[in-house]
Design goal:
The chain is of the alpha/beta class. Helix content is about 25%, strand content about 25%. The chain contains 12 helices and 23 strands. Bound molecules: shikimate-3-phosphate.
Length: about 450
């Protein structure tokens, strides 16, 4: 289990038009957010953690590699990943810089852990991650007493100095960010007293849901007590709603499609795409709802239901579908009417400026749109074909691959290499279910 190092490669996919409806069933890969947390918490735990369904994508492998550098041991047995924790006070000083690759989650969550350690460490990332804002975690960590330096403008690398103890904090975050929330709570596990986080809108709550499985009591609050000890856990990672979303939209777009997506995580802080597809008129049914490892999961059946209706998306709904906005923008390009997205300025500081990257690609395909600082208006209509660029952003690249299925001719999607950060089998899954996708270059 180590990163395959495809970063920097040029991967170009030629997609569409789909020759037939999509059909069959698919268990999308494991949830990325939950997988990062499973590894980090297991690293801090005493004893053994067993994880079924861990996502083995480049982002998660970066977290795994960092946890190993900090002293966690890791092996795989029959699809179960078995982790021997270093223990909260047993982490070892890394011998080298910790490379987080493309992953903001890895960098921001591990910053919370490392800020509390009695040794120095350095967190670095790829070209995209090196442009992302880190002050959102540096500020609260410094307020807790951490010593952290950033590069210019609060960007990575993060140089974290040995800590001689942190102080608990009641942090009111200016952004609804699960990465910030989780970073502060992780640091709080080591701080004196109580640490709690409040946020303007509710962000994904996987940290709060998973810590109790490791024996940490949050007493129903977004709050931890310093000195809490983590004990190894047994976890099952559901399929990632954010990966399933590409296939939900593909089935909604391609006439005659009928897909069953199995074992998808339905956490209510992540299911905004399901709510939006239903309000657009999609034929979508959630079945077999059950609980698995503290998370709600179920199967999603989605069938083509003709042209969907435009919607408005803003406010509290945005954090519940933040990573699905690129594919929603792609879908909006085919809907009846104008879809209006607002309150989504966070999209500009993801793996790319997703509003700009999606606007460039959609305009190339002839889509009528207006870009705003915090969103976009997209008016649906017939789309054209041509060459678009995912610009190294996995979710933008996959969104163009899905939209290309309903173009009148082939669409070339450049900049697809980082699809491996979240969904290494995306192209194979799309082809197996009936989509048209071909790799034309891998640099
Ligand atoms: C994530 C939180 C979100 C999300 C990201 C994963 C997490 O980011 O966009 O893909 O696992 O905590 P923010 O915390 O920046 O909102």
């Amino acid at each position: 289990l180590s990163p395959r190092g495809t970063r920097g490669d040029v991967v170009i996919l030629r997609v569409g038009p789909a020759a037939s409806p999509l059909g069959g069933d698919l268990t999308p890969p494991g949830d990325k957010s939950i997988s990062h947390r499973a590894l980090i918490f297991a690293c801090l735990a005493d004893g053994e953690t067993r994880v079924e369904g861990l996502l083995e994508s480049e982002d998660v492998l970066a977290t795994a590699a960092a946890c190993r550098q900090l002293g966690m041991r890791m092996q795989r047995e029959n699809g179960v990943v078995i982790l021997q924790g270093a223990g909260r006070d047993g982490l070892q000083a890394p011998a080298a810089e910790l490379d987080m690759g493309n992953s903001g989650t890895a960098m921001r969550l591990l910053a919370g852990v490392l800020a509390a350690q009695p040794f120095d460490s350095v967190l670095v990332g790829d070209e995209s991650l090196s442009q992302r804002p880190m002050m959102r975690v540096v500020r609260p960590l410094r307020a807790m007493g951490a010593r952290i330096e950033t590069a210019e403008d609060g960007k990575p690398p993060l140089r974290i100095g040995a800590s001689d103890g942190l102080q608990g904090i009641d942090y009111e975050s200016p952004v609804a960010s699960a990465q910030v929330k989780s970073c502060v709570l992780l640091a709080g596990l080591y701080a004196r007293g109580q640490t709690s986080v409040r946020e303007p809108l509710k962000s994904r709550d996987h940290t709060e849901k998973m810590l109790p499985a490791f024996g940490v009591d949050l007493a129903g609050q977004c709050s931890v007590t310093g000195g809490s000890v983590l004990k190894g856990a047994t976890l099952r990672v559901p399929a990632d709603m954010s990966s399933a979303a590409f296939f939900m939209v593909a089935a909604a777009l391609i006439p005659g499609s009928d897909l069953l997506l199995r074992n998808v995580g339905l956490n209510e802080t992540r299911d905004g795409i399901v709510r939006v597809l239903k309000s657009m008129g999609a034929d979508l049914e959630v079945r077999g709802i059950r609980e698995s490892g503290g998370e709600k999961v179920g199967d999603i059946r989605i069938r083509y239901a003709g042209r969907l209706r435009a919607v408005d998306i803003s406010g509290a709904l945005v954090p519940a579908l933040i990573d699905e906005l690129p594919i929603i923008l792609a879908l909006a390009a085919t809907c009846d009417g104008t879809t209006r997205i607002r309150d989504a300025s966070e999209l500009r500081v993801k793996e790319s400026d997703r509003l700009a990257v999606m606007a460039r690609g959609l305009e190339t395909l002839g889509v009528n749109l207006t870009e705003y600082e915090d969103g976009m208006d997209v008016t649906g209509g017939p789309i054209g074909c041509g060459e678009v660029d995912g610009e190294g952003d996995h979710r933008c690249a996959m969104s163009f691959c899905v939209l290309g299925q309903v173009a009148p001719g082939p669409v070339t999607v450049r900049g697809c290499h980082n699809i491996d950060t979240s969904y290494p089998t995306f192209a194979d899954d799309l082809a197996r279910l009936g989509g048209s996708v071909e790799r034309v270059s891998d640099g």
